[in-house]
What we know:
This protein is about 35% helix and about 25% strand.
Amino acid sequence: MKSRGRSPTVQEMLNYWEYRANSYYIEDPFGRAILRAFIDKLQPKSLIEIGCGNGELLSLYKNIPAAVAVDWSENMLKRANLRKARHFLPNLRLWRHDITQCAPNGQYDVAVTRTVLMHIPPDAIKKTVRHVVKCADQFLIFEYFESVQTEPLAAHNWLHDYVPLFEKEGCELVESYVRQDLPQVLFQFQKKKGVIADAKEA
Length: 202
């Protein structure tokens, strides 16, 4: 499923976010509260946020012993670093990483995305999900989702079916939270036990 019109390439998407970095901001306290509740329930010792943007969620990770946030936009990371300093987060590391190219370094208890995968073009979403799954055991995937698309999407947005995408990579759906105010769902996935064992042996 994809937006109408010509689909931008991954490089065009990166250029778009580099350009938007200085002005982009999501004011979403309710979304933060939803995500915080799921993180608090999981109580991870380590966490990676994939596609952290300007760092709007970084303060949620203050009590996680080992937290990492990555983004493919250098300009977004500049703002994220400023936010890290402002909130004093010595437990958090930031670095540049393109999740469409490969999995990030390290292995984490939980990986988080928020409105990130919805910006990945359809021809890159399968490998991108594969890269996400490689780096953690549990996943909080907070994305735009509707069972039936009700409105045309902007050229940089896509509707993906996340459950079969993650199931194909050896994950199972644990829980989901459907927002009533926005067409967003927080999917909680975990690797199936056999998949976790295989990953630790590899």
